[in-house]
Amino acid sequence: MAPGGIRPALIGLPEIAALALAALAGWLAWDALRARERANDAMRSACRARGLFFLDDTVSLSSLRPVRDEDGRMRLRRIYHFQFSDTGHNRRDGTITFVADAVTDLRLDAGPDSGT
Fold it and tell me: Can you list the pairs that 55-63 forms with residues at least 24 positions away whose Cβ atoms lie under 8 Å?
């Protein structure tokens, strides 16, 4: 006991759990923003390389789930939806898939007039 009969306050298990949950929530939010920026950068580059317009200059998260990578490790798979245009007067849909930090799939809607 401390001098004067006052016990020092210790952090209990509920406080530690609350701090851990807050740290986990912060990390998940930071990681989600970082992943979204990587997806935006990848789509800007892909559209520029193909001569397309990346509309609204953003992607939106469509799916988030754990998967195993080639080495058998658990990773997050994120699928983002975006829109692009080849003429500037139409909107077409596309998706980009990330497993961890790697782009694993990129799909661009060919549109009705592509002949395929």
Answer: 55/82, 55/83, 55/84, 55/85, 55/91, 56/82, 56/83, 58/82, 59/96, 61/32, 61/36, 62/95
